[in-house]
Amino acid sequence: MLDRIRRALDSGSGARESPETPVPRAYAHEHGNRPPAETTDLLVETLEQYKAAVHRAAPGKVPHVVARLVAEAGSSRVVVPTGLPESVLGLVECEVEHERADLTAADLDACGSVITGCALAIAETGTIVLDAGPGQGSRKLTLVPDHHICIVRAEQIVGSVPQALARLSPTRPLTWISGPSASSDIELNRVEGVHGPRRLDVVVVDRS
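^ thats the sequence. predicted structure below, dont judge the formating
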């Protein structure tokens, strides 16, 4: 990063650009060699440690779980991103609105729930990563509303952060989520919902 800044500052001055130095990445990319089922179990465990609510579901049961979570939240309006499979929303009984560019923070704050997919999830850290791809929406979609339902497919689960970085593009707007929003003041009083959803429901879709 510093090398790119130097090159930008030197552009036009005639200074010779220094070549980029490759970064060695010979460190371990995963602790142990877990089978996929154990990696999924670890994700569930770490998500729950972060106070996220996790719901395991077979592929055909996802619409039932999503509809139940929306109903339990008492949502009368749900906002979803473009690219989220319509089948996921088939049993949702309240108003469903697709994200638009002109939706303001106030509009999103007034909605009951948002439902998205993700780019991947990291088992060891209990982290869900969104990169604004299809079915994920813009960053504000998952930072403003009070309730976020996130769907994670089994094939999107990786064991460690290095494995995640190998699959993510640094040019994408990455949002890393580890549990519902929570902050602590200087006296360590926990406050939830200050800078993101107060409630995070993760639907882990098991392999068919």
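Residues 36-49 form the longest helix (14 residues).
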